[in-house]
Amino acid sequence: MTTIIENAGMTFEMMFLFSLIVGALFCYANEKIPMEITALGVVLILLFFFHFFPIIDQNGSNILPSSKILSGFANPAMLTVLALLVVGQGVVKTGILEIFSRHVLALSMGKLWIATLISLITVLLISAFLNNIPVVIIFIPIMQGIAQRFHIPASKLLMPLSFVAVVGGMTTLVGSGTNLLVSNALIEAGFDGFTFFEFTLPGLLLAGTGLAYVTIIAPKFLPHRTSLSHRMRERLDQHFMAEISINAESRLIGQSLGVRMFHELPDINVRMINRLGKTILPPFTGLKLREDDVIALSATREDLTKLMDSGYGLTPAEGYRTNPNSHKKSDQIVVEMMITPSSSLVDNTISRTGFEYRHNCQVLGIQHHAHMIRSRMGRAKLAAGDLLLVKCDTETLRGLREDLDVVLVEFSVEELPNLKSANVSIFIFLSVVLSAAFGLVPIVISSFFGALAMVATNVISLQQATRALDFKVITTIAAALALGVAMEATGAATYLANLILSVTGTASPRMVLSTFFLMVALMSNIISTKTCAVLFAPIGLHIGAEIGIDPRIFAITIVFAANCAFATPFAYQTSLLVMGPGSYHFKDFLKVGSPLVILIWLVYSAFIPWYYGL
After folding, report:
1. Contact 119, 544 (CB under 8 A)
2. 257 has pLDDT over 60
3. Distance between CA 86 and CA 432 in Å, rounded?
């Protein structure tokens, strides 16, 4: 056996490295050990092994020192991902994506598949010209909003979002960093680099294949799995009673009160109107709204908070005595507080107790369990077990936690969009994207500028920026890069390329090209796509020269194959981004992504040889 291995070019270091990769994949799939622990374990094993079994070059130097193995933790690509996470969090925090989400829902005509298709096509087109990481960051909350609107878990939409962003990046030179790396490899080998649209036509075919797969086939394999946040949202679908007043600037003045008063928020129900001290009950046929009308309505906490910031010209009804210093801070949150049996609020009213003034907060709504509300909300008597929907800032929340009259409903704390900083966040985001797109500065510099600017301008706090960083992203990318460095140093990647030639033998160029595509695609799911592109670009150019095929065709093959990282969550950053919000497991990517890899491989193998006349 030893003789066979040596004749095949297999070394002890290669055997160890392949075994480590298989072991890591098993641990990732088994999920008994957290992914972060497995990733750190891979890095630690590499450090130990190559410390005791160093790879020495002809000059007696170790070509794989510890600093090189650990370089992934300071890799510009990973640092860029982390900075973009902070930038994306700043954009999400302002709530501006709600506008796009509402337009999508309006165009969908109440159909889930239309809303999903519009969103995914938009992602595909944008990803052709922008880095797909911030694109996915932007669309995650949009897809979550669509999932919530149609009462399905986000796990049905977020993985397709990631996959479509990846295939969209296959269509132009700047669609993915992988494409640029392969183009640079061509230049270093003495060829001309790719033109901007050199592989757009075959890229569109593969992108269309991917889009068709995720919209038609993938839904049958995607898990129906709810996250904690989704389960909490289902609980929060309960309605609160609220009371709002129409001010002089409201665009609702003169509007007839129909079945659906707020078209963007169709689930809000109007219960009664109070006009000049008189109560008007439904039906409201022919009734037109006037200034100072007080509307009693029933709405979920989400719809209620959206309504107050919707621009309708609405204010909390009189009777709520709000501290004039309230709500000036940008870091606003909404919480639920339950009235205790011994509370001084029992058999009392919000206006009489001065609850809002004392705690510098605002009661948005009340959920009564014991009785119906038939009077003004501010004058309605409260009962034990009633829930108050309270808007406050983080400082106020500490005081509310210590108030014996109310008990905080755990997991109900939700940060409100910082709408005042929307324009600032848009400017920062566009500055990051455009400066990198036009080559003014590298993406790592522009992304770091964006992250710092988001915090410096108070779009998000330093604590919120820290929470946006994902330790899973840090460890898995660093481990993948460490494996890529080790494969390059040990010659494992070259060994695999030579194995392709030995296996295909005298096969036709079509067969060699197809086999090479499959090899690169499989490797891209084990190591990072960028590392895979760097390793296989010179190998592909060498194979093309050996069998008499234009090396550029192999370079384009690497572009498409290296981007086929759908079967594992750690090979491409967008998969890591959706893994948490979608509550996905390793096996979910294996189950849904593997058929897509095979499908794109088959389409590529059938089309490319004909396209290039092979």
Report:
1. no
2. yes
3. 12
